[in-house]
Design brief:
The chain is an all-alpha fold. It has nine helices and no strands. It folds into two domains: 68 residues, Tetracycline Repressor, domain 2, CATH 1.10.357.10; 146 residues, Tetracycline Repressor, domain 2 (Orthogonal Bundle). One of its GO terms (molecular function) is DNA-binding transcription factor activity.
Length: 223
Amino acid sequence: MTSSPTASSITETKTSATVQRQARGEERRVAILRATWQVVLADGVRGVKHRAVAKAAGVPLASTTYYFKDIQALLVESFQLFAHESLAQFTQPFWQRAEIELAALPPDANREELETILVELTTEFIELRLHDHREHLVMEYAFWYAALHDAELKAAVRDMALAWIRLLLPCLARFQLTNDEQAARTLLGAVRRVEYEGLIHGTATHRPGWVREAMAYQMRGLW
């Protein structure tokens, strides 16, 4: 004679099934967000439509409208995930390493020595993004420019920029500048200008060392 399942075992089974269902739902939601990146890379932000994203994600069309109320919500959440992973996987580790390198300089390092290492660090950062992370960079700029016409996306882009500035501030503290925050904003602007030039013109129109030359010129405005 088999015993009947207890109330607690039934509850546990239902809870387990609910957890698994929620996990599958979250996996599908994230897959849709990542598929949005593919569409942005291929066709720009204007190409992000429910049908295009569903096809890229390999999910039914109804899934995109189930998880996201409209295209704007999909774009904003997609960029937020993109920004989080970009910062965590590349930008944050890079500038944390840079902070360690700058801290290791002799206490009596002069302005020229400090400026030289900052130029080298920013040059390395830009060249890595232009060459090893180019597709990622293209998507980032597509989102940033789309934010000009989207208030919610603009707020998400501002959050990413502020996160960058917070990473740069500890590096610049070593330089004894008059205004570290303004210097961080200036440095971020310089990096983005050179990156954009590299994306638009490519390496074919630039001689070797052009990134370093451009950043060396930009650094003069920090002091």
